[in-house]
Design goal:
- The chain contains ten helices and ten strands.
- Strands 6-7-8-3-9-10 form a six-stranded mixed sheet, with helices on both faces. Strands 2-1-4-5 form a four-stranded antiparallel sheet, with helices on one face.
- It is of the alpha/beta class and about 230 residues long.
- Helix content is about 40%, strand content about 25%.
- The protein starts with a strand and ends with a helix.
- The structure holds adenosine-5'-triphosphate (ATP).
- Adenosine-5'-triphosphate binds next to strand 2 and helix 1.
- InterPro entries: AAA+_ATPase (IPR003593), ABC_branched_ATPase_LivF/BraG (IPR030660), ABC_transporter-like_ATP-bd (IPR003439), ABC_transporter-like_CS (IPR017871), BCAA_Transport_ATP-bd_LivF (IPR052156), P-loop_NTPase (IPR027417).
């Protein structure tokens, strides 16, 4: 579904991505692991169009989408839940959800908002509250729910578990799995490597801007070298 081929990305003169390639098969969950500063967020920004690659190509559903803008990619079915969630804190929960569907022209938006609220009852309960008054975990749910309302084929999630308490983290991973089972392909960036690999099919390991390892999630979970370097020794 997604094929990233040899992309380079720079901030000014500093090269942050060095010929990154990866593939995401339709229906799967793929995780990118890596330490702080490895280039995970930059990879997501490049795939979602926030940053233009200086070399290489990105194909989505057989089409070359290299260099397209985020709004163009959203229309093609690629939605990003950015690091740090970035919900609109001065707008209500309901308004945040409506923003997720702003580019849609179909008649199913109200029904989809209802469905999303059924899936996330806390958002229904708090629909009139300002986004900024929600807890971290609730804001993450709102950010994911908002992205779902764009009806993505591919959902990009940048560190969805960051800064959340362990019980909430477990909820978020469960929600990601459910979204995938309902038919959305997922590309996930995580530092919470063990839990991310447990719900995913395939993983890549990024180190200072280069892919240094890849394999089925099972294989990565059972690789002592990777476990030690990226997953801790638990
Ligand atoms: P983290 O988990 O800390 O977000 P990451 O793997 O997502 O790490 P990136 O955010 O992609 O890493 O950053 C990769 C490198 O690019 C880092 O060395 C970082 O300092 C640098 N970098 C990130 N954003 C910018 C920017 N806007 N301008 C200049 N350098 C940047």
């Amino acid at each position: 579904m997604l094929k990233v081929n040899g992309i380079n990305a720079f901030y000014g003169k500093i090269q942050v991505l060095k010929s990154i390639s990866l593939e995401v098969e339709e229906g799967s969950i793929v995780t990118i692991l890596g330490a702080n500063g490895a280039g995970k967020t930059t990879t997501m920004k490049t795939i979602s169009g926030l940053l233009k690659p200086q070399a290489g190509s990105i194909q989505f559903q057989g089409q070359d989408v290299t260099g397209l803008r985020p709004d163009q990619l959203l229309r093609k079915g690629i939605a990003l839940v950015p690091e740090g969630r970035q919900i609109l804190s001065g707008m209500t929960v309901l308004e945040n959800l409506e923003m997720g569907a702003y580019h849609r022209k179909d008649n199913e938006i109200d029904q989809d908002i209802k469905n999303v609220m059924e899936r996330f009852p806390i958002l229904e309960e708090r629909q009139k509250q300002l986004g900024g008054t929600l807890s971290g975990g609730q804001q993450q749910m709102l950010a994911i729910a908002r992205a779902i309302l764009s009806k993505p084929k591919l959902l990009l999630l940048d560190e969805p578990s960051m800064g959340l308490a362990p019980l909430i983290v477990a909820d978020i991973f469960k929600i990601i799995k459910e979204i995938n089972e309902a038919g959305t392909t997922v590309l996930l960036v995580e530092q919470n490597a063990r839990q991310a690999l447990k719900i995913s099919d395939y993983g890549y390991v990024l180190e200072t801007g280069k892919m240094v390892a890849e394999g089925s999630s099972q294989k990565l979970l059972n690789d002592p070298r990777i476990m030690e370097a990226y997953l801790g020794r638990k």
